[in-house]
Amino acid sequence: MTLPLIAILRGLTPDKAEAVGRALIDAGITRIEVPLNSPDVLTSITTMSRAFKDVAEIGAGTVLTRDEVDAVSEAGATFIVSPNCNPDVITYTKDRGLGSFPGVFTATECFAALAAGADALKIFPASLMGPDALKALRAVLPPQTQIYPVGGVGPDDFATWRAAGANGFGLGSSLFKPDWSVDRIAQEARRSVSTWEAGGKA
């Protein structure tokens, strides 16, 4: 079963793509996002999508335009993550058969993203919103809405955010930094998975 944890590999280089991907998958994280402001990002996405197409979902992050949706789709990405709510990009993403995770912060953006067909909402930056604001949003959003806090959250925050209504998380610097060894990335991935499986308690 795919856990609702998305690894955000900002700064990943192609030479590390397969090893890092394998470490994450072995730890139990099978949704992997490579932001477009990473070096030679299309090569990394292609490498991982070919190597792990049967065991993981490889996506692209910081996607802002239709042209970028096209480019990462051709590279093998199966889901799109954005920092913003652009209904045109969301609709186009869905028309191409890809998963859509747009960034939202306000109730207006949440409802606009859902109306455009988003599969889940990326609360960004989550550290500025805080769990209390998510509780307020949960009171008005459709109950089936999938919500992923991203930005300044890690396994130590899982329990608080889950109590506020989060369904999953996007994990960036708590899980991956370009200068970390594969062993350290694997260790942090295992910690995130074990904390999630423990109900959010480290």
From TrEMBL:
Keywords: Carbohydrate metabolism, Lyase. InterPro entries: Aldlse_KDPG_KHG (IPR000887), Aldolase_TIM (IPR013785). Gene3D superfamilies: Aldolase class I. It comes from the Bacteria. Coiled coil: none annotated. Pathway: Carbohydrate acid metabolism. The keyword Lyase applies. The keyword Lyase applies. Belongs to the KHG/KDPG aldolase family. Homotrimer. This is 2-dehydro-3-deoxy-6-phosphogalactonate aldolase. It comes from Tianweitania aestuarii. The lineage of its organism: Bacteria, Pseudomonadati, Pseudomonadota, Alphaproteobacteria, Hyphomicrobiales.
